[in-house]
Design brief:
The chain is an alpha/beta fold and 424 residues long. It has two domains: 102 residues, no CATH class; 308 residues, CofD-like domains (Rossmann fold), CATH 3.40.50. Helices cover 48% and strands 12% of the residues. It contains 17 helices and ten strands. The strands form two sheets. It has a seven-stranded parallel sheet with strand order 3-2-1-7-8-9-10, sandwiched between helices. Strand 1, helix 6 and strand 2 form a beta-alpha-beta unit. Helix 6 runs parallel beside helix 8, helix 10 crosses helix 11 and helix 12 runs parallel beside helix 14.
């Protein structure tokens, strides 16, 4: 019984508005009707001019009235037509479904059309937090633009940046994988790190992007072509096209380099970019101005969020955009950066660096029953935060990943954004 209901639901899905299927099915059926009408005229001529054997009296059901014959042949014809169309589309399109999906063709088309009509969202950040957000959002919309920090100077990205004077590919690789609609093996390949030799520590995806940049001539085109390889839903752009270095003021001195800042284990008073006057990527600014929803975070406050907002022209574009603006606060404090911070501290630091409040909504985690890993303290939302920021609407929701309580859960996070922010 359940199987029959599921099958019926799948058939009815063909009638869903916006699939852009019904119009062509109707045209196809109309053309077949015209063809059948022509065959009918030919058969009439045959009946009138040729004497047929008596068996045709029974084959054509002439012992029943015309209306009964028309009904029976119509039902059988429509049934065979529908079955043949469904089986034909499954046979032709089945091999091209993602991962040889067991979903029906109509389910795949329906999901594709829904994502295509999803809101225009710009996500700004970097690191693991941004990729977690993207994994959830890609199921709701394909109109995604991701603006990624270029201040990373650690690990494989830092080595490639120093050797080849290119933008660091690490955060871009993570975003490509998060937005990919590719085989698990391809994702595993892009994340694979070599363990010996001159390539020790390098991720294959970083090297792939570097090679693509060499082939295409520039880093932006390399991201576009890499996105095609992974069937990425959305576009990924750098916040700036200039080579920048993040500098932090700590204990009255300066610490140069994004990777070195958290290692100081001391309160950070301020961060800034070198050189001065780094300009926003025009493609990033255009995406922000065209967006319907702008999301900042989650991510490291000083080393992922602020390096984007400090690029000249970024904050101005966000303010000028008619989009809703959302800040996603981290679920756990980050050692060396935000130890002891509460929600108010995150907003205060952003305001001190950019000069104003940017956000309409702030999303905070409400589920503190799961202790973050690695000794990290959870970021607590207090009622007093609402009084301190009356211009902001706070949304408290369970968005924590119960398996890794220091991270957001991609599905919970995206569902909360779509239901409580976008549809609010």
């Amino acid at each position: 019984m359940a199987r029959r209901l599921a099958s019926t639901g799948s058939w009815l899905r063909w009638l869903t508005p916006g699939l852009q299927i019904k119009r062509w099915l109707l045209l196809l059926m109309a053309s077949e009707l015209v063809l059948v009408l022509g065959v009918a005229y030919a058969l009439k001529e045959v009946y009138q001019t040729i004497r047929l054997p008596g068996i045709f009296f029974y084959i054509t059901l002439q012992f029943w009235p015309y209306w009964a014959r028309a009904t029976i042949f119509g039902i059988v014809g429509v049934g065979l037509l529908v079955i043949s169309y469904l089986k034909l589309t499954q046979s032709v399109l089945g091999p091209f479904l993602p991962g040889n999906s067991t979903s029906s063709v109509v389910e795949v088309i329906h999901a594709f059309r829904l994502r295509g009509r999803g809101p225009r969202i710009v996500a700004i950040g970097g690191g693991t937090g941004l990729s977690s957000l993207l994994r959830g959002l890609k199921t709701y919309t394909s109109n995604l633009s991701v603006i990624v920090t270029v201040a990373d100077d650690g690990g494989s990205s830092g080595r490639l940046r120093d050797e080849y004077r290119v933008l660091p590919p690490g955060d871009f690789r993570q975003c490509l994988i998060a937005l990919a609609d590719a085989e698990p093996l391809m994702k595993q390949l892009f994340d694979h790190r070599f363990k010996e030799g001159s390539l020790n520590g390098h991720a294959f995806g970083n090297l792939f992007i570097m090679a693509m940049a060499d082939v295409t001539g520039n880093f932006e085109q390399a991201l576009r072509e890499s996105g095609k390889v992974l069937a990425v839903k959305g576009t990924i752009v750098p916040s700036t096209l200039q080579d920048v270095t993040l500098v932090a003021s700590i204990n009255g001195g300066s610490v140069v380099g994004e990777s070195k800042i958290p290692m100081q284990n001391a309160p950070i008073s301020h961060v800034f970019l070198k050189p001065d006057g780094v300009q926003v990527n025009p493609e990033a600014a255009q995406a922000i101005l065209s967006a319907e929803l702008i999301i900042v975070g989650p991510g490291s406050l000083y080393t992922s969020i602020l390096p984007n907002l400090l690029v000249e022209g970024m904050v101005e574009a966000i303010k000028a955009s008619p989009a809703l603006k959302l800040y996603i606060c981290n679920v756990a404090a980050q050692p060396g950066e935000t130890e002891g911070y509460n929600v108010d501290d995150y907003l205060r630091v952003i305001r001190e660096h950019v000069g104003a409040n940017l956000f309409d909504f702030v999303l905070v985690n409400s589920n503190t029953t799961h202790s973050p890993t690695g000794g990290q303290a959870p970021v607590i939302f207090r009622p007093v935060d609402t009084a301190k920021h009356p211009e902001v609407r706070f949304i408290a929701s369970d968005v924590v990943n119960v398996r890794i309580p220091s991270h957001h859960d991609p599905d919970k996070l995206a569902r909360t954004i779509m239901r409580k922010v976008w549809q609010a």
